[in-house]
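W.,

You were right to be curious about this one. When I first looked at the sequence I had no strong expectations either way, so I just let the prediction run and decided to look at it fresh. Below is the sequence, 329 residues in total, followed by the output.
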Amino acid sequence: MLSIETTLSKADERVHFKMLDAEGGTVFSGSSQQAERKFKFEKRISRPHKWTAETPYLYTLVISVGDVWVTQKVGFRRVELIDKIFCVNGSPVKFRGVNRHEHHPQFGRAVPYNFLKRDLILMKQHNINAIRTSHYPNDTRLYDLADEFGLWIIDEADLECHGFDPTGVNPASWASDNPEWKDAYVDRAHQMVMRDKNHACIIMWSLGNEAFYGRNHQAMADEIRKIDSTRLLHYEGDKEGPEGHEAQTVDVFSRMYNHIDELKGFGEAKEWAQPFLMCEYAHAMGNGPGALTDYLEIIYKYPRLMGGFVWEWANHVSQRPTTAFIIVY
């Protein structure tokens, strides 16, 4: 199902739209019946090419109002839990993922496009199929490339506050469970989803990282689900439910750096409320990680296990220029 929702600054123009396939052929076209500020259109596409990380088929949606034209690459895929197993387009998916910070050895956080593109090409060449945008929404061009190349994306809100640990009181009480911070938390979730929601590569929203757990996370989840009901929610710090192995607010149970035996235990559980994800594991900064084969064998053996995201894609080093000194006597 293709759903188009537009909001115009004023209601004096009709909305025109058409969708093209990858070869440039017109799949359908249409327009609003009258000029109106808000317009919603839905069309069921018969047997569309399905977008996956392995088959990243993209259509082009063109929307025009007067002499203003907007284009967006779109893909058709369905994200859901089937019998509590994570599936896309009805088939289970396993993440062979990495966490990725935006970093360049010379320019810091200002990452040139060619360097970003090189990162994603290297990932594809090395059998990596997923990225967690740790710990903030990334450069918008990353999502364009992930749509094109085929990478599953967990898009993460810009939220982390684990520095409150040493305060001697409940660390969540400072921000995550403090009603005075609700609007700030919800705004970060809202801005992320509204900016990135049209990208096929994004299959999960994350409420942030290491920010404890509080009522403001629930408010973030409520806001995201109000905007977008087509994707699942992730947050590693979510409060555990009564069974101990489920999250209270989000859709997947997530933990970091599980020992292999512990991971096996999650896989062998007879009953579970949610699939299990390692949002960080196999710490790979500095000395290389070990036991990756053992981890992957267990991940692929048990249906509950979704896979994981290695910490992380690259070291954050600075490449300092060499300076030559000439001493004159």
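Here's what jumped out at me. Helices lie at 113-125, 140-149, 182-196, 215-227, 260-268, 292-301. And, maybe more interesting for your project: The chain is about 20% helix and 25% strand.

Coffee later to discuss?

I.
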